[in-house]
Amino acid sequence: MSDSDDDTARTDTADDGTPGAEVPDAPAGPTPRMLAWARNSAAWRISRKMMTERELSDAVSRKARQKFEDIPEEHVALLACAAVDFGRMAGAIDDANYAEVKTRSLTGSGRSRRMIARKLAEKGVGQELIAETLVDADDTDAAIIFARKRAFGPFRKVEPDQKRMTKELSAFARNGFSLALARHVLEMDRDEAEEQLLGRHRLL
C-alpha cells in the first residue's frame, strides 16, 4: 500500500530505517466543545456592550489562545468566525448599526467628524461604511456642543483676551474641527447657538 493510501496515524522513522513513535494526525478543525465555547464566549461579550465584528473576533481569538494550549492559528481563526457568525445570527453584530449609533452618540458629545472617523476605524469599521455613516453628521452641532462643554465662545462666563481666544481655537483644532468652523462658533451669540441645538433636538 502506498503512503497516500494509508489512513493510519503517521509513524516517524529513525535514521537507521527502524520505525519510531507514532505521531497522531492533527485534528481537522476545532472540536464541537471548542465551537460551543466560541458561541458562549460571543454571547457573553455581546450581552455586555455593542461590538464590531473585528472587536468580537479579536476578543475571542485572544481568549482562545489563552484557554486552549498550543491551538493552531487556523483553529483560532475558525473559532473567531464561529463567534462572529453567532453574533450576526443573534442580530447583535452589525457594523452598520454600530457605526450609526456611535456616530449619533459621539456627535451629541461634541466630537468632530474627523474624530468620529478615527474612533470607528480603530474599532474595525471599514472606510466605505464610515464615509456613508458620516454623510449626515453635522460638525456645526458638534462644535457648538463642544463649546458648551468647555464654556467657550457663546458660553463663556468671562470676556476673552487674546490668550484665551488662542487657547479656544487650539482646542477646536486638536479635536478635529476646522479653523473656519471654530471661528464661526466662537463668534455666535448664546441665543443663536442654543437655537441651532434646539433645531437638532427637533430632528432627533
From TrEMBL:
TM helices/strands, residue ranges: none
Record Gene3D superfamilies: Winged helix-like DNA-binding domain superfamily/Winged helix DNA-binding domain
Lineage: Bacteria, Pseudomonadati, Pseudomonadota, Alphaproteobacteria, Hyphomicrobiales
Location within or outside the cell: Cytoplasm
Pfam families associated with the record: RecX_HTH2
Family listed: Belongs to the RecX family.
Chief subcellular location: cytoplasm
Region listing for Disordered, in residue ranges: 1-33
Keywords: Cytoplasm
Occurrences of domain RecX second three-helical (ranges): 94-134
Official protein name in the record: Regulatory protein RecX
